[in-house]
């Protein structure tokens, strides 16, 4: 264990341009710290170096206080082991929030750059920051470094689970740049984005094609950059077209069933539905009775013509 005493460090001794430890996103506290000089301040983590002190954690706390005489800090000595610095820094961040996958990836890369053996990272370092001692996690997390920073920040904002980080990190940068356009123009939910990415990836694999052809076919950019379409309509159109590519049989089946249903003269108090996956071959009839006229409307609904159309729809499920 390493004991780090709190020191009031003169701000002119801090090298704000040194970003050797630029590994962590800002820590957003639930209780804002006042900018008043006499207010309570959380200590930042810094390391002594030949060119003044470098910031390890807490840049977002120190930057607004550059003009103050001194700030509270925990100081690592220049000869402190790199693994110890990262272990303490990671756990300091964990006092306030979980580590983001991309932060773990940066930590791993920093350890590898400092010649730390993979076995040591997995067996010793991972358990010390709350991860399983699984060496396979190293490359799993390192994939997150492939993420465009805009997508990483969006995932942080959405509090995305690890599986979503990993799924998006496997995408080519060309695909990611198009996803950024989607995020900017439609602001999708996390589940909708996951659906779109999953269906496009599976279509690419099934058709043995590339992302450029898929996005061209569904007119991705044309739809997203259409200023006359509201966000909800843009996302609805793209989801429909992507689903049609991913499930061509299901999509054509759905359209045929919809066409047949629209031919049926249904009164306002009656609704016809069916299993959208077509696994259950049955129609459901929901009727609402608010007056005797509604009962009469249901009786009139079962004409010979409507019976024939209902039977035709049922046979096509």
Plain-language structure description:
It is a single chain. It contains 15 helices and seven strands. The protein is an alpha/beta fold and 317 residues long. It has three domains: 6-145, no CATH class; 147-246, no CATH class; 251-315, no CATH class. The strands form two sheets. The chain has a five-stranded mixed β-sheet with strand order 1-5-3-4-2. Helix 9 (190-207) packs parallel to helix 12 (231-246) and helix 12 packs across helix 13 (248-262). The longest helix is centred in the middle third of the chain and has 18 residues, at 190-207. The radius of gyration is 29 Å and the shape is elongated. The model has no long low-confidence stretch (mean pLDDT 89).
Q: Pick out the low-confidence regions.
A: none
* Helix and strand sequence: EEEEHEHHHHHHHHHHHHEEHH
Overall pLDDT score: 89
Number of strands: 7
Classification by helices and strands = alpha/beta
Number of helices, counting only DSSP H or I runs of 4 residues or more: 15
Shape: elongated
Q: Tell me roughly what share of residues is in helical segments.
A: 40-55%
Portion in beta strands: 5-15%
Distance between the termini: 67 Å
Radius of gyration: 29 Å
Number of domains: 3
Give the spatial strand order of the biggest sheet. 1-5-3-4-2
Q: Mind summarizing the main beta sheet? A: 5 strands, mixed
């Amino acid at each position: 264990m390493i004991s780090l005493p709190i020191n009031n460090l003169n701000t002119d001794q801090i090298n704000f341009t040194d970003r050797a430890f630029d590994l962590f996103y800002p820590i957003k506290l639930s209780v804002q710290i006042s900018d008043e000089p006499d207010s309570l301040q959380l200590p930042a983590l810094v390391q002594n170096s030949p060119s003044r002190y470098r910031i390890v954690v807490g840049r977002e706390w120190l930057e607004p206080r550059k003009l103050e005489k001194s700030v509270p800090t925990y100081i690592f000595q220049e000869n402190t082991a790199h693994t110890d610095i990262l272990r303490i820094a990671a756990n300091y961040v964990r006092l306030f929030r979980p580590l983001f996958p991309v932060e773990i990836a940066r930590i791993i890369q920093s350890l590898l750059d400092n010649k730390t053996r993979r076995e040591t990272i997995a067996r010793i370092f991972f358990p010390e920051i709350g991860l399983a001692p699984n060496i396979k996690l190293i490359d799993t997390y390192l994939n997150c470094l492939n993420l465009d920073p805009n997508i990483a920040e969006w995932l942080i904002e959405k509090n995305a689970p690890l599986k979503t980080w990993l799924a998006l990190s496997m995408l080519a940068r060309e695909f990611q740049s198009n996803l950024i356009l989607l995020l900017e123009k439609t602001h999708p939910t996390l589940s909708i984005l996951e659906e779109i990415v999953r269906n496009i990836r599976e279509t690419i694999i099934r058709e043995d094609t590339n992302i450029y052809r898929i996005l061209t076919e569904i007119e991705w950019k044309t739809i997203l950059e259409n200023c006359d379409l509201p966000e909800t309509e843009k996302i609805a159109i793209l989801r429909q077209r992507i689903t049609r590519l991913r499930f061509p049989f299901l999509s054509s089946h759905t359209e045929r069933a919809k066409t047949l249903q629209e031919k049926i003269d249904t009164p306002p108090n009656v609704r016809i539905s069916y299993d959208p996956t077509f696994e259950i071959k049955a129609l459901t009839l929901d009727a609402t009775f608010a007056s005797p006229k509604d009962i009469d409307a249901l009786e009139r609904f079962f004409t010979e013509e409507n019976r024939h159309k209902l039977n035709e729809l049922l046979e096509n499920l």
